[in-house]
Amino acid sequence: VVSVGDIHGDFERARQTLVAVGLVNLPATAPVKEARWVGGVSVLVQTGDIADRGDRSREVYELIEELRNQASREGGRVVSLLGNHELMNLQGDWRYSTPGEVQSWGGEDGRQAAWSPGGWAYDTLRRSYAAAAVVAGTLYVHAGLLPAVATAAVEATRRDSGGADTADEQLDPAHALTQRVWADIESEAEDEVLGDSGPLWTRVLAKGDEGHACAFLASSLAAWNATRMVVGHTPQLLGVRTRCGGRLVMADTGMSSYYGGPMSAVE
Question: How many Cα atoms occupy the beta-carbon half-sphere of 218 within 13 Å?
């Protein structure tokens, strides 16, 4: 399992990272359609924030979809998560977009259409981008998962299952949280899930008092039966850092040219 953090429109650094970790074969000047998944049964997790701050986010989204299709045929998997910048674009908030990024979607009208229901970006994200995922015992989420949100997702899962234990992936807490996030996006609701304490925005685990943060982390991990949490969102420009005895991995290293941090991936 390999995870990659915030990309922010930097197609070239994303390409270099995926090639370096042995998941993708794609020469520097080749078009996306020539990308080849060479990771076999590996799992790639991208923890959100492909959009904004760089010109080539559309190409990154297209690359991820190409790899998703190829990986599934090889027994591998690509897991995509929503970040706060995906959320902002879905909400029509383009304040961090670059002119080149807007033009890549065909100008303002084309971008608006692409990120609205029925458009390519919206429908791709709606179909394939989750709010969180647990893979091999590790909980992946863009910003962090606080206990109130984690517990609410578990309770929703129990309601859906009638209180019975189930292995059905449609009845896991990550699925319940994803359904709630998308329902709130579609209804334009304003609540904790899409707000500062939600999984796309919180910085409590990454920047809060360590004692409180580690207690919150332990509670959320226990609720979801996970051993550690990998997050992006809060840049670590000197490289991947951990907190709470390694149980929180902060993997946004600002790898895009906008931030100038090191390229990185977490295995």
Answer: 8
State which amino acid sits at residue 95: R
Is pLDDT of 118 > 70?
A: yes
Write out the DSSP string of 126-187.
HHHEESEEEETTEEEESS---HHHHHHHHHHHHHHTTT-----GGGSHHHHHHHHHHHHHHH
Place of tokens 């923890």: 47
- In 3D space, the residue among 100, 76, 90, 167 whose CA is nearest the CA of residue 122 turns out to be 90
Inter-CA distances, 159 with 11, 145, 149, 162, 166, Å: 42, 20, 15, 5, 12
The answer to whether the beta carbons of residues 49 and 253 sit under 8 Å apart is no
CA 241 remoteness from chain centre: 18
Going by their DSSP bridges, the two strands 228-231 and 248-250 should be labelled as parallel
pLDDT classification of 165: cutoffs 50, 70, 90:
low
Nearest of 46, 67, 50 to residue 10 by alpha carbon: 50
- Whether 164 has a pLDDT exceeding 70, the answer reads no
219 CB-near residues (< 8 Å, 6+ apart): 147, 150, 151
The answer on pLDDT for 42 being more than 80 is: yes
Q: Give pLDDT, residue 160.
A: 84
